[in-house]
Amino acid sequence: MKLVKSLLLGSAAGLTVVAGAQAADLPVKKAVPVEYVRVCSAYGAGFFYIPGTETCLRISGRARYEAGYMTDGSRQVSGAGDAFQSRGLLRLNLDARTQTGYGTLRAFVRAEIASRTGQSKMSSGTQQRIANAFPAFGQDTFGRVQEFVVADKAFVQFAGLTAGRASSFFDFYAHDFEIIASTLGSDVPSTNLLAYTAKFGEGFSATISMEDPMFRKNPLYSQVAGPAAGAGTASAFFQGTTAPTPIIISRNAAGVVTGVTQIDAVERSRMPDFVGALRYDAAWGSAQLSAAVKDVNVGGPLGAASTFVGGPAAARVATGAFVGAQTTYGWAVQGGVKINAPFIAPGDALYLQGAYGEGASIYTGYTAFTGTYINQTSVYGGNPFNQWLADAVVNPNTGRIELSNSFTVVGSYLHYWAPEWRSAFFGSYGEMRFPSGVRAALANIGTAAGTLANGTTAYPTTNLITAAPGTLGFGLSPVLRDTYQVVAGASLIWSPVKDLDIGAEAQYIRVGTLNGRVANADRNTAAAGVAGALYSVTKEDTFQARFRVQRDF
Prior knowledge:
There is one protein chain. By secondary structure, the chain is mostly beta strands. It has helices at residues 2-25, 125-129, 361-364, 438-446, 472-475, and strands spanning 48-49, 56-70, 84-100, 103-117, 133-135, 145-158, 161-166, 191-201, 204-211, 244-251, 257-264, 273-282, 285-298, 307-309, 317-318, 326-340, 349-358, 376-377, 387-388, 392-394, 401-403, 405-418, 421-433, 452-454, 457-458, 483-494, 500-513, 526-527, 530-531, 539-552. It has a 16-stranded antiparallel beta barrel. Strands 15-10-11-14-24-25 form a six-stranded antiparallel sheet, covered by helices on one side. A hairpin with an 8-residue loop joins strand 16 (326-340) and strand 17 (349-358). It starts with a helix and ends with a strand. Mean pLDDT is 86; it is low at 15-24, 226-231 and 453-459.
């Protein structure tokens, strides 16, 4: 037995030696070293190196809940009665930066997705008209439920160049301290642009920017119907692709309109907007002066060459009005200053801003509350009269484009009561005026509209003033009426921990006429054939409030 055991142990030892020798001849596979994420401190907190690269990346985002209330017309008025609003919003940001011999190469992208309900500022016709949102189509949900999906930012910055989707370089205050963001002032969060910024030292910089025109075009006056009374009807949000506007082409010996043609008032994308800005930044705050120029264009005749009043052709006298395609140019200027006020409380700051423009109501921000990308709109469901916001009107007498003008001023102050508590106090005022004489020219068409015909097709009179100048109906018509707006409010926000905001904001809004009274459309009374004449008004007021819970990370 001892001999057998010795033989077995010797064999095992020999096998072990042979196996060890063979293993030594095999290639050795080393474990791949783990590359830990490295902190990148060159661009501030939150950046880290993308493994295997010299690019620093920061991932951030936002989650938000909002609930709002806005006074609305009586439920007795068709389409009115909506008051409650809500929204849940998701935001995701990616900020990638790489240091190069030309400076920092940066790419920034932001996506926003929201579920929005309610009429007016939450479920917004403006966002649908600009293709930032899509609506529900149910009987109770159309105009009240939206899904909002937008590429809010996507731009590259390199050696002074900014290219992509970014905030307009025209903007300055842009509702920085507000929750609802309704004060009158320019604020286009996203537009497609190509810009170059030169820095001169001592805080001075200058930018020239070529920006997409479609985000700053408010329509010309046309005969396309404006928004319906409220939610639940498609016309409250849809603007047709053919927008006719009339030109008088003949009169009789007495001056009565006998011939009218319609031209295409849809603005095509013909050239970019050009924006310039001069900016100064210092420890005390910042200041900016910006300017913009944009084109305003119309096409030629629509359909049949003309639409005539019945009567002998010999009685018609040509007016010589222009009926072809044409382009003119709108413009806007804006100045603003931000003053830091740590001597009152750390974090306090004051914004002051003013803007004036012609044919550029989105640049002046006059449309910020009532609505954009539409030539007239309601202030709220069941309101007394619609407000007209057209950037321009084709004068029916001459056939030439004439620009409206607008101005706005805004002030906003942010105050910290304590490190966790802050409030914003803000107010704004603006006016919009239309070319003189155009309303009377449209009324001259409207009074003859009942006899205007083109074969068997009646001349459309939607939006035309259908009462002659000097009559009650003309005086009470809201069409192309000069108006003013006031938007003022305040907020209170609690931040119990870093990057968490819980707050509320309330606003008062007034829209009024600058000259004369207008018929009150929510009254079922008629006088001299004019609805609501016995109850004419000069203003309409509304109030809105919003509660917000927001976490940034």
